[in-house]
Write a structure and sequence with these properties.
Chain A is mainly beta. Helix content of chain A is 5%, strand content 57%. Chain A is globular and about 100 Å long. Chain B is 13% helix and 47% strand. In chain B, strands 2, 3, 13, 14, 16, 18 and 19 form a seven-stranded mixed sheet that branches. In chain B, a hairpin with a 5-residue loop joins strand 11 (173-176) and strand 12. The longest helix of chain B has 17 residues, at 2-18. Chain B starts with a helix and ends with a strand. Classes of the chains: A mainly beta, B mainly beta. Strand 50 of chain A pairs antiparallel with strand 1 of chain B.
């Protein structure tokens, strides 16, 4: 069947589905509007809105919009949101209503009063999804005091962090490329700073963070393992405010406020490190003034939104972030002078323009135009000046290397609320990708010649389009389900690929406090990431799925139970999952990102394709969301294997981040309005790595090497005369010719377990101008020397007196990056 | 090259970070030593077997410690026991390199030999057995009181039947490297009559004769059985040197096929100056050796070389590990390889 035919059928199905629900909703009235923060005007996302009498309700959408259709009757509407006071609203529902509701933030003393009014996972059809409040993230202790959203997400069960200090995400056995990370709906490709130790997300600019590990709603697609949906703040509609912090390595500042009160607001938030302020003078001193090097990163978030009317609203948001490493130097003599400079920069640019329109009280739409670009750029230039008695001439050279991926996207999403028992989302999206694995520009000018050339490697363009529909339906008081389908058309080099991905999540309530959940989803991914460093290097390369390296796909099923305990003070969930992935890639034997040339050719020739991944396990999460003490305990038991026809003899082997046990404990306690304390403890099974356990001797090849004759032979002497001698090689070290033995296969060696305790305390004090907070933290409080990497260290021992060789010494060593690290930061908030 | 440059920059950053790290000794899995057999047989040459034991990664050994001198080594030909081999350990002088140069017009060439004193430690037949022939199957069975039993066999391939050969027209190319290095290559085409039933691999060796000079080139190979549709790759980026291993006869098994070999030509250019680059040689002919080798031999050497080239050591390996290369072995109960080969030679005029 043609792809276009299937698409048209899906569209027709969507229309008929919508008409059906329009028909059944004739005898009810609809209440709709926006739910907002009373002080700032910020939209409140995923907030429950329901009728106390009938128990029927809904959640606000991603823009704070709600729509609830109920039969004509007297009702009591309840609006609630974590951190805000409950709003109850009696209403005689004899017509349609459209109004906005503003919730007031509560103070600490009111916490217990509103405790039971929060959104409960036990009521939600979604499964394998977690939200972490930004305020809670800000309280957590962090490496060098840099609060990090990604590292907070890593503390959730089912999510692993990869290497020490890394911001990599490994969700339910997936790879770091299998996460759809959205900032205001726009995909980000590289979310790390400083080799992965910090993420690009500045918590001061963010509003909500939600992670899906499975049970993906149909509106999401394009990655196999997770969706991390991060939303930026909209900007305070009512008053100006500024907040910021001064830390050990960076400072932040956010300013927001109304441009036209109640109509237009903005937020601008920036962060910059000042590592370069130290490294530049130090490097100058070290090089006696001949060179200086510096490194810094920055993030800049900005957003402006304007309310045209109750029906129309426009958002323009952008993000720009870069890492910059640069150096320059030179020296001068009477006859000769030289200057050179180099820079290495990488970062994202993201922009989104969104238009919300309320077509009717039960139909909401959002049109989005997006742009996303990740770029790595290296520049080097230099000039040499030669001075002779009667003339002076110079030579210059320049090198410019660019590798980038750019996306332009358009999408339209509809939220349709035909009845209290149905919430339908449907939409279309299309993204045009361009992949530039590497473009090199070289220029050289001498007194005799000029060279100016560009070498462009393959430029791939692809168009990825999708259509989706999902219905969040309720049958009776006990059963609810989210049924959906996501269909994708992918076009690359005039070849079309098509996939239909069913999505199902279901919930059955055993009682008011206990519900059973299950889900089954298919996902496709038309993009690959070439990486095996595991440490988030910026040169990791995104490449498209091609005919030779096909798309990845997966199916995942999960089942579990949610339980609200102790009058909703605690939430407990237990989930088991099984995920099968196909179309995975890995580097061929002997390759890594840099050494692909060993087997040569294009990137397609350096990877093994058609890999299968199998991952399964169980996740336990016990959360306390309310009260002065909040936090969670998470535990994951999992297995995670890969299998490729040409790797490890075709046998399945553990994935590098196969982690049998993964445990996290997060506790925050608010002693008073002024003092809070937080602690996190994590434990994880060591990473699986490959290490040669032994070696064996080889002999010199009579043919002179693996690929042909090396060294000479004399054709005049006729046929080969083979030497009677075969040299025996035993050197299994660098570039030796003995063989290494991997007895148990790939990734059979386990690093030591990882565990760490972080502590933090915050002292807040009101000031005339606002408030200030001193945050003191200790990363790795008991200074556990966790392994970052292992390596074999070989040394030749010589007699110090005679200089003669005594013996070789071979040891296995481990690298630990971060022992105990204290931090302090000063935060301020102007009002 | 550029990636290496970027690599260096990133690595410099990482090493700065790692500079704060602590190195610790930790326990390492124990390796159980096994017998390692190494032998390459070819028709008309005496049989020998190099026998050692494997060793742990952290074990600091020298050859004397791993040589197996006291093992029982049985040699079978086509299933029949023909010898119990004996260990020999002798010193001899071996030529490691030689070259010839003319003394002047009308004078004979002079050859210079570089030699080394070498120790050989291997098992050889204890009786006067016939030298091996193509088609024969030899099997070693090694029994040792400590390291158990290991065995391996190989069947000597037939001598390649070379029908004819020619230099591919207009195939001479010059490669320019970023650092100023240059080299020159050409492709040769050889038609072969591949014997049916043998699961062979082909490899090449070549020697180019140029006016007054002889060089031993490095070569690379590529293979295509259908000459009529083959395009000789002229684009520098389209050629991968020294990375393609022996080619399988799978597609031409039992038929006539065509093999191509890329051969490095002498006279160009290295890091020479522009003036020297003009002094190209006149090529006369090339002697191409076509080697038929067993699959076990080809696979073993291919992976051994790949492992050797890709292996990182020290702290660099911690940050940028390459994917491990597993070396296949046809030795049951041990490591190493027992392989065989057969060589034919053809002279091709330029």
């Amino acid at each position: 069947m043609k792809a276009s035919t299937i698409l048209w059928r899906l569209i027709l199905f969507s229309v008929l589905w919508s008409c059906y629900f329009t028909g059944i909703a004739q005898n009810s009235h609809t209440i709709s509007g926006y739910l907002r923060d009373a002080t700032s005007g910020e939209s409140l996302i995923s907030a429950p809105v329901f009728d106390e009498k009938s128990g029927k309700g809904t959640l606000t959408n991603s823009f704070g919009f709600f729509s609830l259709s109920l039969p004509e009757d007297s009702i009591i509407l309840r609006f609630s949101y974590a951190g805000f006071a409950l709003e109850r609203m009696p209403l005689m529902l004899n017509k349609d209503f459209n109004f906005n509701v503003d919730l007031k933030p509560y103070s600490l003393d009111e916490v217990e009063i509103v405790a039971e009014e929060l959104d409960r996972a036990v009521d939600n059809t979604e499964m394998s999804a977690v939200s972490i409040p930004i305020n809670q993230i800000k309280l957590m202790p962090a490496l060098l005091g840099e609060v990090d959203v990604i590292k907070a997400v890593q503390l959730m069960p089912g999510v692993q962090s990869g290497s020490e200090g890394s911001t990599g995400l490994y969700v339910r056995g997936g790879g770091p490329d299998q996460n759809l990370i959205l900032l205001d709906g726009v995909p980000l490709y590289y979310v790390s700073h400083l080799g992965g130790f910090f993420s690009v997300f500045n918590a001061d600019a963010l509003s909500t963070v939600k992670l899906y590990k499975g049970g993906f709603p149909a509106r999401y697609g394009g990655r196999l393992s997770s969706v991390l949906d991060i939303r930026m703040k909209e900007g305070n509609m009512n008053e100006f405010e500024a907040e910021g912090s001064i830390g050990i390595i960076s400072s932040k500042l956010s300013v927001q406020g109304p441009i036209n009160k109640g109509k237009t607001s903005f937020i601008v938030s920036g962060r910059r490190t000042y590592i370069d302020l130290l490294t530049r003078p130090l490097s100058r001193i070290a090089s006696e003034g001949e060179a200086s090097v510096g490194y810094y990163f920055y993030d800049l978030n900005a957003k402006i939104n304007h309310i045209f009317s109750d029906k129309d609203r426009l958002y323009l948001s952008m993000y720009s972030g870069d890492d910059r490493f640069s150096g320059k130097g030179g020296y001068s003599e009477p006859e000769y002078e030289e200057e050179f400079g180099l820079s290495l920069g990488w970062g994202n640019r993201v922009a989104a323009l969104r238009w919300n329109h309320v077509w009717s009280n039960n139909l909401f739409s959002n049109v989005t135009a997006t742009f996303s670009r990740y770029q790595l750029r290296t520049k080097a230039d230099g000039e040499a000046i030669y001075r002779e008695p009667d003339s002076t001439y110079s030579e210059t050279f320049g090198l410019d290397y660019v590798s980038r991926i750019r996306d332009w996207g358009m999408k339209i999403d509809f939220d349709y609320y035909p009845s209290p028992n149905h919430e339908i989302k449907f939409g279309l999206q299309s993204t045009y990708h361009t992949f530039e694995p590497g473009t090199i520009g070289i220029s050289q000018r001498t007194s005799e010649s000029t060279l100016d050339t560009s070498i462009v490697t393959s430029l791939d363009r692809s168009l990825e389009s999708a259509i989706y529909i999902e219905d969040n339906l309720k049958i009776g008081r006990s059963f609810s389900a989210n049924l959906g389908v996501h269909a994708v058309h992918y076009l690359l080099n005039e070849k079309s690929y098509f996939s239909v991905q069913p999505r199902v999540s279901a919930r059955y309530a055993l009682s008011n406090d206990v519900s059973l959940k299950a889900s089954y989803v298919h996902m496709n991914q038309y993009i690959h990431l070439l990486t095996n460093s595991g440490i988030g290097l910026p040169i990791d390369l995104w490449v498209p799925a091609t005919e030779n390296v096909p798309a990845q796909f997966s199916w995942q099923t999960a089942a579990g139970v949610s339980w609200a305990l102790f009058n909703d003070k605690f939430e407990f969930s237990l989930e088991g999952y099984y995920k099968k992935m196909d179309g995975l890639i890995t580097f061929k034997e002997g390759n890594n990102f840099f050494f692909g040339g060993v087997q040569g050719g294009t990137w397609e020739e350096t990877v093994e394709t058609g890999g299968v991944g199998e991952t399964y396990g169980a996740e336990l999460l016990l959360q306390k969301k309310q009260g002065k003490t909040t936090g969670w305990f998470g535990y994951t038991l999992s297995w995670n294997n890969r299998q490729f026809a040409n790797v490890n003899g075709g046998l399945a082997y553990p994935y590098k981040y196969d982690r049998r046990h993964d445990l996290s404990l997060v506790v925050t306690h608010q002693f008073s309005d002024r003092i809070s304390m937080a602690g996190t403890w994590v434990f994880g099974t060591g990473n699986a790595i490959s290490f040669p356990t032994g070696g064996f001797a080889t002999i010199s090849d009579p043919l002179g090497g693996g690929n042909g004759f090396q060294g000479g032979f004399d054709p005049a002497n006729g046929p080969a005369v083979w030497s009677p001698f075969r040299q025996i090689f035993t050197d299994i070290g660098s570039y030796g010719q003995g063989g290494q033995v991997f007895e148990e296969g790939r990734n059979s060696f386990r690093m030591q377990p990882y565990h760490r305790l972080d502590l933090g305390v915050n002292f807040t004090k009101p000031k005339k101008w606002g408030e200030r907070t001193w945050s003191i933290g200790i990363y790795n409080a008991y200074s556990r020397l966790n392994p970052f990497a292992y390596y074999i260290d070989r040394r030749q021992i010589y007699d110090q007196n005679t200089g003669t060789f005594v013996r070789s010494e071979t040891k296995l060593k481990k690298i630990t990056l971060f022992p105990i690290i204290p931090s302090v930061s000063y935060q301020f908030k102007f009002k | 090259m550029l990636h290496s440059y970027i690599n260096s920059l990133i690595l410099a950053l990482l090493v700065v970070l790692a500079g704060c790290s602590t190195d610790l000794e930790i326990p390492f899995p124990k390796h159980e030593p096994k017998l390692t057999l190494n032998s390459f047989l070819t028709p008309g040459e005496p049989i020998d077997l190099y026998l050692t034991r494997s060793f742990g990664t952290l074990e600091n050994i020298d050859i004397d410690e791993i040589l197996i001198r006291d093992s029982k080594v049985e040699l079978f030909r086509d299933g029949n026991l023909i010898d119990e081999m004996t260990f020999v350990d002798t010193l001899f002088v071996d030529t490691v390199y030689s070259f010839s140069y003319p003394l002047g017009p009308g004078l004979p060439d002079t050859t210079v030999y570089y030699t080394e004193e070498r120790q050989t430690a291997k098992y050889i037949p204890s009786t006067n057995i016939d030298l091996p022939k193509a088609g024969e199957t030899y099997r070693f069975v090694v029994t040792h009181p400590t390291y158990g039993t290991a065995s391996a066999e190989t069947t000597l391939p037939a001598k390649p039947i070379l029908i004819d050969g020619s230099v591919v027209k207009d195939s001479i190319i010059t490669r320019d490297f970023d650092d100023g290095y240059q080299d020159k290559w050409t492709a040769v085409k050889i038609r072969v009559d591949d014997p049916a039933g043998e699961n062979n691999f082909y490899n090449f060796g070549a020697a180019v004769q140029a006016v007054n000079n002889e060089f031993a080139p490095q070569i690379d190979t590529f293979y295509n059985w259908n000459w009529a549709t083959t395009e000789i790759v002229r684009d520098v980026d389209g050629i991968v040197y020294g990375e393609r291993g022996p080619v399988s006869d799978e597609e031409i098994d039992g038929t006539r096929g065509v093999l191509y070999a890329w051969i490095q030509l002498p006279g160009c250019c290295g890091y020479s100056t522009d003036i020297q680059r003009e002094q190209y040689y006149e090529y006369l002919d090339v002697n191409v050796r076509v080697v038929a080798m067993t699959e076990a031999y080809a696979r073993f050497q291919e992976k051994l070389q790949l492992q050797s080239e890709s292996r990182l050591d020290g702290i660099e390996s911690a940050f940028l590990p390459t994917e491990p290369v597993v070396i296949p072995s046809n030795v049951e109960g041990g490591y190493g390889v027992v392989g065989s080969f057969n060589v034919a030679e053809i002279k091709i005029e330029f």
